[in-house]
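Please complete every field before forwarding. Incomplete forms are returned to the sender.

SECTION A: IDENTIFIERS
Entry label: holo-341
Bound molecule: flavin mononucleotide
Molecule representation: SMILES string

SECTION B: INPUTS
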Amino acid sequence: MRSLSVVRAAMEIGRPMPHTTMPLHLAPMAGLGHVAFRQVLARFGGYSLMVTEMASARAVIHENRATSRVFRWEERELPYLVCQLVGATPQDMAAAAQRVEAEGFAGVDLNMGCAVADITRRGAGAALLADPDRAVAIVEAVVRAVRIPVSVKLRTLPGRDVEGTCRLVRRLAEAGAAWVTFHPRVAPDRRTRPARWEDIAAVVQASPIPVMGNGDVWHPEDALRMRAQTGCVGVSIGRAAVAKPWIFAQIRGQITPHLGLYLETALAFVAALWEWNPPAQALQLFRKWLPYWCANFTYGHAMAKRLRQPTAQSALEAALREEFAFPPALAQSPNPLLIVG
Ligand SMILES: Cc1cc2nc3c(=O)[nH]c(=O)nc-3n(C[C@H](O)[C@H](O)[C@H](O)COP(=O)(O)O)c2cc1C
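SECTION C: PREDICTED COMPLEX
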């Protein structure tokens, strides 16, 4: 295997990025934004806040932090960690938010965007967009119940009703939301259709509270472009942060990525996964993350297929190193076919 430092020197890209102080958040992602991943991301810094994967409000009330798959964190994360809750009623959400506050989280984020049938069937996630009165009642109840900031993550109302979305955002603001994170896609789009940044601009215009823009930020330049085009106060990044956890530091001009970083990061991630989880669960989470990381490379499909074979931690580490024995070519942009989600 060629020495990593040689590879690193050969791949130094050195593209200067303007420094920026805008808020940058890790977007909530079920199955991806867990404590092991956040631990790897935290090494690079550059983010303002990380939002946890969604946690069921009903479960959070009784959840055992030591054994929960989702409601888990490190003490040192708390000043920068917002817990996202998903639930259907003001009572459930307010009670869960009180637990979140008591645990010391920096804030609580309310999920009004998840379109997965299991969630919407229960009247939670994106189902709240079709019931603005209940969405507002939830924010009012949570704001009454806690002193930490309460934010809302939402997407465009059904039928791409941007006007209705703006009306809802104004009502959420009146109810006491501190900011909203807006993902400009309607629920049936999932993530296969490009995010409509012009709808972020419309929501920014209408909103009395800060709007974090979200959707299709793949490169550091995209974050700056989204802010310039939409007027959003800051940017929330999901999939690109999974593929490149250093993207926040890169936006701030604090790091210049090199090829060796991809391997180092994958190895650090495997170590963190196996430290935090029993082996079977660690493997499951590794496989969930794998396509995002492989999307960085031109032959990512084949790489992902090979890396799905090993099951033991040591075999996986060896397989990852083997992929870099002959340095893989980086794709210009993460391959969307691997990660449309
Ligand atoms: C695997 C996956 C899981 C997600 N889980 C959540 C979630 O738990 N809560 C939420 O509000 N959004 C969730 N999202 C949506 C993201 O937060 C984000 O809105 C979306 O990926 C678009 O941003 P991006 O283009 O930067 O990835 C999820 C997205 C993905 C890909």
